[in-house]
């Protein structure tokens, strides 16, 4: 069966520091991968998605970036965090069919 | 662009009773999928139910069922025999065939004992 992992689970970072969040999927190959951000009590905002290694599409202009160095690895990064980057970050994947499956999420607090 | 609207920010229901959460969407696509996700306090997103637009029969999963009205672009979720563990935020989502998902803003459901 397929599983999706995210780490870290919780992160507290100062403004201006770098960021690296990692997402990996097991048990499948060539998945579509997604990064979402969720503000407290709100819906999901799509940040990036990837249909293959090195292929990244950005949905929202911001100081975040994403990379997919391996087929089942998706990384969300920032060179300098802003206060507004605080939130709950969710990674998701889709198989060849339609349903998205989500990771456990990373709670990021920027102070 | 597709939009998904959940008009009920918050709802509550007594344990063992039935509740219906509303969702409407707007699209020009003909082939698509609709989903309801549940996000409990742990914030893990859990798939509750999915519906393929080409199927007229409403999807059901145990106590969860949908009322899919394609012409009206409506996709409501009915929870029967509500349980305390159903307390969560519920998101309606739309996905065109091989496209990206669009999520509603969510409905916070509280099941009261």
Please, could you describe this protein's structure?
The complex is a heterodimer of chains A (111) and B (113). Chain A has 111 residues and is mainly β. Chain A has strands spanning 3-7, 10-13, 19-26, 32-38, 44-52, 55-58, 64-70, 73-78, 87-94, 101-102, 106-110. The model of chain A has no long low-confidence stretch (mean pLDDT 92). Chain B is mostly beta strands and 113 residues long. The radius of gyration of chain B is 13 Å and the shape is globular. Chain A binds chain B through residues 34, 38, 41-44, 46, 49, 88, 90, 92, 98-102, 104-105, 107, and chain B through 33, 35, 37, 42-47, 50, 52, 89, 91, 93, 95, 97, 100-101, 103-106, 108.
Find the count of extended strands of chain B (DSSP E, 2+ residues): 12
* Tally of helical runs of chain B: 0
Structural class based on helices, strands and sheet pairing of chain B: mainly beta
Strand residues, percent of chain B: over 45%
Order of helices and strands of chain A: EEEEEEEEEEE
Uncertain ranges of chain B: none
N-C termini distance of chain B: 41 Å
Secondary structure class of chain A reads: mainly beta
Instruction: Work out the largest interface and the residue count of each chain.
Output: A-B, 19 and 23 residues
pLDDT average of chain B, as an integer?
A: 94
State the helical fraction of chain B: under 10%
Helical amount of chain A: under 10%
**Major sheet characteristics of chain B:** 6 strands, mixed
Based on Cα principal axes, name the global outline of chain A. globular
Morphology of chain B = globular
* Helix-strand sequence of chain B: EEEEEEEEEEEE
Number of strands of chain A: 11
Low-confidence stretches of chain A: none
Nearest-angstrom radius of gyration of chain A?
13 Å
């Amino acid at each position: 069966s397929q599983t999706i992992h995210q780490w870290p689970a919780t992160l507290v970072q100062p403004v201006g520091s770098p960021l690296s969040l990692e997402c990996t999927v097991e048990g499948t190959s060539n998945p579509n991968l997604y990064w979402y951000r969720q503000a407290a009590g709100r819906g999901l905002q799509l940040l990036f998605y990837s249909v293959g290694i090195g292929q990244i599409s950005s949905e929202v202009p911001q100081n975040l970036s994403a990379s997919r160095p391996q087929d089942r690895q998706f990384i969300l990064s920032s060179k300098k965090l802003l206060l507004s980057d605080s939130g709950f970050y969710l990674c998701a994947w889709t198989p060849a069919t339609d349903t998205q499956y989500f990771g456990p999420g990373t709670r990021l607090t920027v102070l | 662009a597709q939009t998904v609207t959940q008009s009920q920010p918050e709802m509550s229901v007594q344990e063992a009773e039935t509740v219906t959460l509303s969702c409407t969407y707007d699209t020009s696509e003909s082939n698509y999928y609709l989903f309801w996700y549940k996000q409990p306090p742990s914030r893990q997103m859990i798939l509750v139910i999915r519906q393929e637009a080409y199927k007229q029969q409403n999807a059901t999963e145990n106590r969860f069922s949908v009322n899919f009205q394609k012409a009206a672009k409506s996709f409501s979720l009915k929870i029967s025999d509500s349980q305390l563990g159903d307390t969560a935020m519920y998101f309606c989502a739309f996905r065109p065939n091989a496209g990206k998902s669009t999520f509603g803003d969510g409905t916070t459901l509280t099941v009261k004992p």
